[in-house]
């Protein structure tokens, strides 16, 4: 199974997380407009990635006949529901520069939690899930 598209999207997501981290370290209030744009940009990539996983990757793995990958993909898909919901709420709250300027501490708190979870998930897929798929 060719998963290059999914791997490329992970690279894009990690790059966008890095940009967001740099902007935040440079100052939330000073970079509020760029941070808000960055969140909206990243949201588009994440939505596309999740849709492709749900429509193509997970169903293909369920049809693969590999019980381990089927179970793993089912669990990852289930777990992603909570992660995606948390990210959507984060993006809704912080994709407006005014909100960032008005509550820097709240943004930092939410970003640390939600974006760390997202980063860990992408890394888990990169190091554990995708290699197993490629070995199939």
Describe the structure.
The protein is mainly α. It has helices at residues 4-25, 32-63, 67-94, 97-102, 104-135. The chain has one domain. The protein has 5 helices and no strands. Helix 2 (32-63) packs antiparallel against helix 3 and helix 3 (67-94) packs antiparallel against helix 5 (104-135). It is elongated, with a radius of gyration of 16 Å. The model has no long low-confidence stretch (mean pLDDT 96). This is Hemerythrin.
State the gist of this model:
It contains five helices and no strands.
Net shape = elongated
Portion of residues in beta strands equals under 5%
Helix count equals: 5
Estimate the helix proportion, in percent: over 70%
Number of domains: 1
Main beta-sheet annotation: none
- Runs in which pLDDT lies below 50 for 5 or more consecutive residues are none
Rg result = 16 Å
N-to-C terminal Cα separation, in Å?
A: 7 Å
Domain Hemerythrin-like: 3-133
Pfam family, one: Hemerythrin
Organism: Simplicispira suum
InterPro entries: Hemerythrin-like
Task: Give the topology, please.
Elements: H1 4-25, H2 32-63, H3 67-94, H4 97-102, H5 104-135
């Amino acid at each position: 199974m060719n998963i290059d598209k999914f791997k490329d999207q992970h690279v894009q997501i990690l790059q966008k997380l890095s940009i967001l981290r740099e902007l935040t370290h440079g100052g939330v209030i000073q970079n509020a407009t760029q941070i808000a744009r960055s969140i909206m940009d990243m949201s588009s990539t994440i939505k596309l990635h999740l849709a492709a996983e749900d429509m193509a990757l997970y169903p293909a793995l369920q049809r693969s006949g590999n019980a381990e990958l089927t179970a793993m993909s089912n669990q990852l898909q289930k777990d992603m529901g909570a992660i995606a919901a948390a990210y959507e709420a984060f993006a809704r709250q912080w994709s407006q520069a005014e909100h960032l300027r008005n509550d820097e501490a709240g943004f930092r708190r939410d970003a640390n939690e939600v974006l760390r979870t997202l980063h860990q998930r992408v890394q888990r897929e990169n190091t554990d899930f995708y290699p197993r798929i490629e070995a199939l």
